[in-house]
């Protein structure tokens, strides 16, 4: 296994230095060029450390780096799938630093970078950053698929507010910005306001609330609500904050790792998942478990995608 990753240094100095990002290989899983080069990769990760409207605890801009750091410790072999999913090739793009002034201009800038990342036909997973960025891939895929697309949204929140703290571009509004084109199906939702509830009823959106997770056939309800083409948006505050306290707006309750895997396994197998994002990790100094969980979540998505497309 040592051949595939650069991180397995032999000397004590190398081990000591491995916590310093300038000594680490940048690529997801610590993959070497053989499996991380763009030419070879069937999967691409687009890290977007964008944070402009976080409403409670800040830190999502450090999410992508924490995911990449933690990923170097994820086991490459997946026993559930009996495969080594990294063999499809996983390219990690440089951090997309959005330099335009204001969220709206920044999102327009992201649209260009996102389209470039998708141009090669790879399966693209965007790593946030705050949830605001999801409207870019959601609308990009809506354009490409003539709106024949649904969103599977793992989240504690519906994100259907028209505005929040005076801005249309808040992470709390991201699904409202796309709902006219693409319908979200929410999973793990447990914090909404009354206007969101009215909109959910008016549009007939399917929400599997957190307390429904694990009940008989809960995942059937989700799959039945989704069309064939699915964009997958995974806000990590879906998880019980006992598992992932490292997020901007933690809500009690929420999903388990096994519930997330149960649904992901089925949605990749039974639908056409066109692309994905994982957002809202806000790392906590000294607590690596959430970073590791999110890195493994990304790798499981790649594994399920590979199982469908191998
Ligand atoms: Mn959320």
Structure report:
With 310 residues, the chain is of the alpha/beta class. It has a single domain, classed as 3-Layer(aba) Sandwich (Arginase, Chain A), CATH 3.40.800.10. The protein has an 8-stranded parallel sheet with strand order 2-1-3-8-7-4-5-6, sandwiched between helices. Strand 7, helix 8 and strand 8 form a beta-alpha-beta unit. Helix 4 crosses helix 5 and helix 8 packs parallel to helix 9. The chain is globular. The two termini are 22 Å apart. The site of manganese (II) ion (MN) has 8 residues, from loops.
Brief digest:
With 310 residues, the chain is an alpha/beta fold.
Helix segment count?
9
* CATH H-level superfamily: Ureohydrolase domain
Overall geometric form: globular
Number of individual domains: 1
Strand content: 5-15%
Total count of strands: 8
Strand order of the largest sheet: 2-1-3-8-7-4-5-6
- The CATH first-level class comes to Alpha Beta
Uncertain runs are none
CATH architecture title: 3-Layer(aba) Sandwich
One letter per element, helices H and strands E, the order comes to HHEHEHEHEEHEHEHEH
Largest sheet: number of strands, sense, barrel closure: 8 strands, parallel
Distance between the termini: 22 Å
């Amino acid at each position: 296994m040592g051949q595939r990753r650069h991180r397995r240094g032999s000397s004590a100095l190398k081990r000591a230095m491995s916590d310093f990002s300038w000594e680490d290989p940048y690529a997801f899983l610590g993959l070497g060029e053989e499996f991380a080069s763009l030419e070879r990769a069937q999967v691409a990760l687009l890290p977007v450390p964008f944070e402009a409207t976080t409403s409670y605890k800040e830190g999502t801009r450090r999410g992508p780096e924490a995911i990449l750091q933690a990923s170097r410790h994820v086991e490459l072999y997946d026993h559930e799938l009996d495969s080594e999913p990294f063999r499809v090739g996983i390219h990690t793009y440089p951090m997309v630093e959005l330099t335009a002034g204001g969220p709206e201009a920044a999102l327009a800038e992201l649209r260009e970078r996102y389209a470039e990342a998708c141009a090669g036909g790879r399966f693209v997973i965007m790593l946030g950053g705050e949830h605001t960025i999801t409207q870019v891939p959601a609308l990009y895929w809506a354009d490409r698929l003539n709106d024949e697309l649904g969103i599977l949204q793992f989240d504690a929140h519906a994100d259907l507010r028209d505005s929040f703290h005076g801005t249309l571009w808040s992470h709390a509004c991201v699904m409202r910005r796309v709902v006219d084109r693409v319908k979200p199906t929410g999973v793990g939702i447990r914090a909404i306001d009354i206007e969101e509830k009215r909109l959910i009823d008016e549009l007939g959106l399917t929400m599997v609330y957190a307390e429904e997770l694990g009940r008989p056939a809960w995942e059937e309800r989700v799959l039945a609500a989704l069309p064939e083409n699915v964009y997958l948006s995974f806000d990590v505050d879906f998880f019980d904050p006992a598992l992932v306290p490292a997020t901007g707006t933690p809500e009690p309750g929420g999903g388990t790792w096994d519930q997330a895997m149960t649904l992901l396994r089925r949605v990749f197998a039974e639908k056409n998942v066109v692309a994905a994002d994982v957002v809202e990790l806000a790392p906590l100094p000294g607590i690596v478990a959430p970073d590791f969980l999110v890195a493994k979540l990304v790798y499981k998505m790649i594994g399920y995608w590979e199982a469908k497309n191998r």
